[in-house]
Amino acid sequence: MSTNVAIIGAGNFGQALRTLFQKYEPSLAVTMFDQGQGSEHIAQVETLGNFRVVIIAVPIKAFENVVQQIGPHLSPGTLVIDVCSVKKHPADTMLRLLPGHVDIIASHPMFGPQTLGRSDWSLKGMNLVIYPLRVDLAQFENIVGRLRALELHVVEMLPEEHDRLMARSQFYSMLLGIVCDDLGLEPTEIDTPSFTQLMNFMADVKHDRGILRDMYQFAEPCRNEFRLLRSELEKMEKEFAGSQMT
Amino acid sequence: MSTNVAIIGAGNFGQALRTLFQKYEPSLAVTMFDQGQGSEHIAQVETLGNFRVVIIAVPIKAFENVVQQIGPHLSPGTLVIDVCSVKKHPADTMLRLLPGHVDIIASHPMFGPQTLGRSDWSLKGMNLVIYPLRVDLAQFENIVGRLRALELHVVEMLPEEHDRLMARSQFYSMLLGIVCDDLGLEPTEIDTPSFTQLMNFMADVKHDRGILRDMYQFAEPCRNEFRLLRSELEKMEKEFAGSQMT
Hints:
2 copies of one chain form a homodimer. Chain A is an alpha/beta fold and 246 residues long. Helices cover 48% and strands 15% of the residues of chain A.
C-alpha cells in the first residue's frame, strides 16, 4: 500500500486541503471522495481500503454518518484524521465507531480557504490543533514534525480543552461576524479603523453560517458562550439605559 | 486677534488634537482648557475671548454644560468646532446656546489616539466627518482644503445622517469590542486570523466604554441598533437550538 491520501468531503475545506497537498506534498497522490449526487452515501467508498491516510473533511452534522460508512472499508494500519471545528464530538465518534485496527488523530486547522487565498497559501504562523487519539507515538511525532516544517504553529491539545478554548475565540469572531452580516452591515464612507477590521473578518466568516450552527449544536461550550454573550449585552443595555441622561 | 487655538477638554482626544496641531500646524499657538480640580467649571474660561478658534473636545454628556459656560466669553468671529462622536445632539446644542456672532462647524474625526499612535500620527486615509452649521462658506472651504492637504478623507455630511451611519459602523465595532472585553476574552494559543482581528480592535476600543454609553444615550440610532443586535442574536439562537440535532 503506497502512501496515498483520501480526502472525504469535497467542500470548501476539503478542496483547500487538496490544494495544500499539491503545493506542499506533491509526491503524494490525493483522491477526493464525496457523497453521490442526491445521496447521503459516499461514492466508491469500497475503494477506501487502498488508502494509507484518510482525512475526513465533512460538515460536523454529517460526521457520524460518514464515519459509520467508511469504517468497514478501512485497511489495518490506515491513519484516519478529522479536521472538524469542534473536537470532542468527532473524537468520541471516531473512537467509538472506527475499527480497532486503524490509527486516529484529531485535528483542527485554525484557518480556512479565505485566509490562505490571501497569503498565497502560506501556512506560516497559522495555528493547528492536534491530538493523538490512538496512534503510534513515533508516527505521530513524525507527522507533527512535517507540519512544523511548513511553519505551522502546532498545538497538542485535548479535544475537551480545544472546545472550551475555541468557544472563547474562533466561535466569537464567527458569531459576531455572521450576526453583523445578518444585520446587513457593510463598509461605509466614514468607517473607523476598528470597524474596517470588523468588516474584514465579517467578509471572511459570513459564508460559514453552517459551521457556526454546527459548533453551537455539537459543542456545549459554544452554547454556554452564546448565552453569556446575550446576557452580557442585556446587562450592558440596562446599565446604559438606567444611567440615561444623568 | 492672532490665529491661536483653544482646546476645551484635556482628555485622551483633546491631548491627541494638541499633538496633531504640534505636528501639522506648528505655527499655531494651542492652549488647553479643562475643568478645575473637583469642579465642573472650566478654569480661566474668561480668557477664551482671546482665541480665534475654539475646539470642544469634552465628553458628550458634559457638552451642553460646557457650551453654556463658554458661550458668553467668545469674541465675535470666533470659530467653534466640536469633535463629538455623535453629531445631532452637539449640533443642536451649539446652534441653540452659542451667541449669534460666532461661527460653528460640527466635526467627527473617525479615529483616535490608539490608531494614530500606531501610525506615527499619520492621518493618511483616515475619515473625518464635517458639517458647516453656521459659517462663511469661503472660510469653511479653506478649512476643508487644509484638512485634505493632510491626506484626510473629509466627508461633508448632515449631523442626522452621520448619526444614522455611525450607528451602523463605529457603534458596532465599539459595542462588540467592549462586550468581548466585558466577557474577559483574550488572545489564545489557537486564534484564527479572524479572532486575531477581533482582539486587535477590542484592544483599541476597550477603554472607550464612556464614549459608547454616551453614543447610546445621545443618539437614537445607536439605541435602535443595540435593540436590533440583541433581537438578531435571539433569533439566531432560536434557529440554532430549534434545528438542533436534525
